[in-house]
Amino acid sequence: MGSWILRFLLFLICGISGYYLAIGLYPDSNVGLLGLIAGLLLATLTLLLESALRRIPLKSLLGGFIGLLLGEMVANLISNVFLSSLWTYQQIALPLYGGLYGVCGYIGIRIGLKKGEDVHLSGWKLFSKNPPPTGKAKILDTSVIIDGRIADITETGFVEGPLLIPQFVLSELQHIADSSDSIKRTRGKRGLEVLHHIQKQAGIDVKIVDKNFPSVKEVDTKLIELAKEVRGKIITNDSNLNKVAQLQGIEVLNINELANSLKPVVLPGEEMNVKILKEGKETGQGVAYLDDGTMIVVDNGKRNIGKTIDVTVTSVLQTPAGRMIFARLKDEMGKEGKGRESYYPVDSEF
């Protein structure tokens, strides 16, 4: 509301100023209306300039301002050394001076804007809300916070550097926690509890980042832009975000990939003791699970549902959904050969 009042006052002041300025300059002419229109156009250009400047990072603006000053200083030096004798010919001198100052100012601004991107202001108290540009920073996305395993990982001390929680991720979590859907609401509340738990852990530096990107709508795209700015890594378990970020040169730490790499290696011929929990897809098959969630398909295991039995591993299959182990009953090994792992397509999700 306040911004609209300020804009209205800007148009009012510029319009009135343009009207009376035109009357003062040309009292004998009816140019007041033209002055009013010129003032309103000036106010419009001011608002457009404001909108453009808001999208430029502060460090780039500072670099551009310094570049402009240096460019004008160079133009002044050149004009005093080489062009001072031309002042007697004002018809030549004025356009030449104007072009010289314009070209040097433009070059200075362009170079300043570009070099300003390499300036880091994180050490200044004025910019303490912005995250430090360090490759050790880890940015958490919404999915990995709701997942919850990140709290256990940080507690082990394997994650170095500050954990950055963008404000737009917190807003998305709050929106999920306030959802009318009970499942979404539970997920959102779990994510907020996970963050609270991480903040209480000793030795973990958690920073809430106020940085936003108004011109970007998608949260995933904002995460990528933030990672570029702070030169950090994104922690996620979203496969789509993983692919898009890697295409743009952003390092991604995928929780699911980490979990899969930590699963114990199981080789064909090893014996295991498992509990058959349910029926498999094919006739006679039973399904069991390891403690880490790995699925075990046991041929002829259906009749042992609810029982804990000894099985022998026949093969191991890595699928996009995770790892699967195929096995047969220990006392049947050698009677019928290998299990029927081909009945499960590799793109199945369990």
What features would you describe in this structure?
The strands form 2 sheets. The chain has a 6-stranded mixed sheet with strand order 6-10-11-9-8-7, with no helix packed on it. Strands 3-2-1-4-5 form a 5-stranded parallel sheet. It contains 11 helices and 11 strands. Helix content is 49%, strand content 15%. It folds into 3 domains: 115 residues, no CATH class; 134 residues, Rossmann fold (3-Layer(aba) Sandwich); 78 residues, OB fold (Dihydrolipoamide Acetyltransferase, E2P). With 350 residues, it is α/β, with parallel strands linked by helices. The two termini are 52 Å apart.
Topology diagram in text:
Layout: H1 2-25, H2 32-54, H3 58-82, H4 90-116, E1 138-140, H5 142-147, H6 149-156, E2 163-166, H7 167-177, H8 182-200, E3 206-209, H9 219-230, E4 233-236, H10 239-247, E5 252-254, H11 255-261, E6 271-275, E7 278-279, E8 286-289, E9 295-299, E10 308-319, E11 322-329
Parallel strand pairs: 1-2, 1-4, 2-3, 4-5, 9-11
Antiparallel strand pairs: 6-10, 7-8, 8-9, 10-11
Helix pairs in contact: 1-2, 3-4, 6-8, 7-8
